[in-house]
Design brief:
This protein is α+β, with helices and mostly antiparallel strands. A hairpin with a 5-residue loop joins β9 and β10. α3 runs antiparallel to α6, α6 runs antiparallel to α9 and α14 runs antiparallel to α15. The N and C termini lie far apart (72 Å). The chain binds adenosine-5'-triphosphate. The site of adenosine-5'-triphosphate (ATP) has 22 residues, from β2, β3, β4, β7 and α2.
């Protein structure tokens, strides 16, 4: 299996490439920075896809190569060539030195990018989407991780691993529902947090507007630094559960900066349009391009100055995330249903989520909620959270100590559980700090960057301590009350 673009003859032989560094890791692929020796040692990126991990998806891998070879647009990353190397498929592509927007925000913009930067990036993506849809293709995996940027601030949409053409007969009947008047896909593809509701309810079929939903989620991801509900761990079966990974801070706490951020009406309106539950009401890329949010967009230079300037290289950033992951000592697979500690957490279903335009967030919806939802998306109870009577700060506030129907034993159990989670996190941070401090081989500049990371962690730790203190107080209070009853 191999393919090559016509304009340049990149060799289809792995010996012609020299791997320089590892720069990224996806679910089933590793991305390398490499040089192509016969092409004047030009720098390339090689995505080595593990064909075994992609399981039966050889078709989609072929499709990616085929789709990619036919596309031609300034905002779409076109691979030079692809070929099999043992059990991996190497996709050789231009090296985008800024890496993905996801890796950029994770490293340097934890609270998200500024609106002018977001508008500038997203306008380019809309342009790519408009072209792609015009050619009869859906991308199906729009997210910041698939938006790459080069040293000149040029933004490109990448990763056609799950893209599909509605003209492609190779997908066959399993992929389409032909009963509707327009051709619609029915196979589940993409990454859970960014997936449109109709993609999850695959029996109803979906089409181009699923990309618009993911585009809206990507806008929130760029604005907040992470996609909505990303504190809920995804699972392959789309059953999202919180067991041991539930973090008090994830659900209830925002950072000071993110709390104080105000988004423009135009931005909120644009995202609201994309996140309409009814796909037919979501605007096309062309219509979105005319939205006032994109009116005064800047050029690539603006991104160079405001996003890329001072950013560690993509390889440095990748190494740092690897180091930080070392801090996740003993973290268990989120899909692991049989918890080794035997901890049983009661779970409570949520029926979907609402886009809260005012708060600029997707919010979980509980089946018992009486509130009228404006844009509710139902997931048929596929997401569950601990069932302990605590919903949110607002709902919890007046009831915690005053009776009023609160199940105190359950609250106590939940708070003790949270306390344990905070203890674990504290332990992990301490171990990480000790590990980094003890490593004398770290180079000076990296050390400086790591110190900043540590400082951030220290502040987080302080915040966690404060929270822990208030949780402990609450536990004591409830214990007392419990004993008195
Ligand atoms: N052409 C490229 N040039 C530079 N960096 C790249 C390139 N392609 C990918 N990367 C880097 O590698 C990382 C991983 O990319 P990859 O496409 O494997 O994973 P992902 O899209 O984040 O995850 P997944 O597709 O598995 O959900 C990206 O986040 C990006 O930083």
């Amino acid at each position: 299996m191999s393919h090559q673009t016509k304009e340049e003859d990149y060799p289809l032989d792995s010996n012609c490439y020299k791997i320089v560094d590892e720069i990224g890791k996806g679910v089933s692929a590793i991305v390398y920075k490499a040089i192509c020796i016969p092409m004047n040692s030009s720098v390339v990126a090689i995505k080595a896809i593990d064909l075994e991990k992609t399981r039966a998806d050889l078709d989609s891998v072929r499709r990616e190569a085929k789709t990619n070879a036919l596309l031609r647009h300034p905002n779409i990353l076109k691979a030079h060539c692809s070929f099999a190397v043992e059990r991996r498929l190497w996709v050789v592509m231009p090296f985008m030195s800024g890496g993905s927007l996801q890796s950029i925000i994770a490293s340097s913009f934890p609270d998200g990018l500024s609106e002018p930067c977001i508008a500038t990036v997203l306008k380019e993506i809309l342009s790519a989407l408009s072209y792609l849809h015009g050619q009869g293709h859906l991308h199906r995996d729009i997210k910041a991780g698939n938006i790459l940027i080069d040293s000149n601030g040029v933004v490109k949409l990448a990763d056609f691993g799950v893209s599909a053409s509605i003209y492609d007969s190779s997908i066959g009947t399993s992929g389409y529902s032909s009963s509707s008047s327009s051709m619609r896909l029915t196979d589940v593809a993409g990454t859970p947090y960014w997936m449109a509701p109709e993609v999850i309810h695959s029996h109803t079929g979906y089409s181009f507007k699923a990309d618009i939903w993911s585009f809206g989620i990507t806008a929130l991801e760029l604005a907040h630094g992470r996609p909505p509900l990303s504190h809920l761990p995804p699972s392959k079966s789309l059953t999202m559960k919180i067991t041991k990974r539930f973090r008090f801070s994830d659900h209830y706490e925002e950072t000071k900066e993110s709390k104080n951020r105000r988004f423009s009406k135009a931005f909120k309106d644009m995202v609201g349009l994309c996140l309409d539950q009814d796909p037919s009401k979501r605007p096309s890329p062309e219509k979105l391009l005319k939205h006032s949010f994109f009116r005064n967009c800047k050029g690539p230079d603006f991104l160079v100055k405001n996003v890329l300037h001072g950013l560690p290289s993509v390889e440095q950033r990748f190494n740092e995330t690897k180091i930080l992951k070392l801090g996740d000592f003993g973290e268990e697979d989120e899909d692991d249903e049989s918890s080794s500690s035997g901890e049983i957490v009661k779970q409570r279903r949520i029926s979907g989520w609402n886009f809260n335009e005012e708060g600029f967030e997707l919010e979980p919806v509980f089946p018992s909620d009486q509130t009228e939802s404006v844009k509710q998306v139902t997931f048929g109870g596929e997401i569950v959270i601990p069932e302990n009577g605590i919903k949110s700060h607002d709902q919890q506030g007046g009831n915690a100590g005053g009776g009023g129907g609160v199940d105190k034993a359950a609250v106590l159990e939940h708070l003790l559980f949270l306390k344990k989670s905070l203890d674990d996190q504290r332990q992990q941070v301490l171990q990480l700090i000790a590990w980094v401090r003890g490593d004398e081989t770290v180079e000076n500049n990296r050390e400086e960057h790591l110190m900043q990371v540590i400082e951030k962690l220290r502040v987080e730790l302080e915040n966690e301590k404060k929270k822990r203190y208030s949780v402990e107080m609450e536990v004591e209070f409830l214990k007392l009350q419990h004993c008195n009853e």
